[in-house]
Amino acid sequence: MRLKRNWQWLTGLTLLSLPLLFADSCMQFRMSSSEIKEYFEKRGLEGQESYYKIGNRKINYVHVGNDSLPTVIFVHGSPGSLSAFIHFLADSSLLEKAQLVSVDRPGFGASNFGYAEPSLEKQVSLLKPLVEQYKDHRPITLVGHSLGGPVIARMAMDYPELIDGLIMVAPSIDPELEPNEWFRGPLALPFFKWLLPRSIRASNDEIWKLKPELQDMEPLWSKVKAPTILIQGDKDKLVPPGNADFAEKMLVNAPLELVKKEDMDHFVPWGHPELIREAIIKMLNSTSTVKLSAN
Fold this sequence. Notes:
By secondary structure, the protein is of the alpha/beta class. It contains twelve helices and eight strands. Strands 1-2-4-3-5-6-7-8 form an eight-stranded mixed β-sheet, sandwiched between helices. The longest helix has 25 residues.
């Protein structure tokens, strides 16, 4: 009888795990190394996937372009991976002006997939070596979409000497506009979180903690000195358009340009890539001019 019960329990567990494994495989929001390599080869580009280790973390990224040019680093939202911006890394108009880098944030892509770092302060400390690697007296522009927005803002707060320009795309930066989603707390509990696909688990872990993280950032906005372009759609249902107003209020020591579009939703990198491209080129032109005049 005990053997039968054990067998029934094992069978039930197996049946439960199969759809969970299937969901995990379907909801990864990332490309494999072979897919990344093939993507660049098909376009005649020499894109290189690399990584570094810091503590017990691995940070994965891909880079392409002339290393003597200024650098643009793309930071994805949640969930996501470096592949969210991979089409920008093949953009010839950008490659003429910059070396392009896209990074897997902690917990996403190939950067310890499934194990997020909810602390924005710790997260940018993990990404700092990447920025330092490309600095070398050249302008660095950070592009962040959605939750990537507060990440790059925190980078500019904590390490202003490394950052020459910010482009925030539909960023979640106002703590008062963060939605009160009751389900995120329960999904962060150990029993439930391990039932989630790894990408969703990592995403929930950091979104659940985002509001207090943004509150901690409020006194630090005056530290941001880098010129900033913020792109926001009025039809964004995930990040309220009021986040743009928050940036206008808080960025007291940084030049800010707001780019608003009435009929645009949250998914700007895919629906309106031209707005990001234009912002990058504009930022590169201005930061390069400043660097030349400083020299």
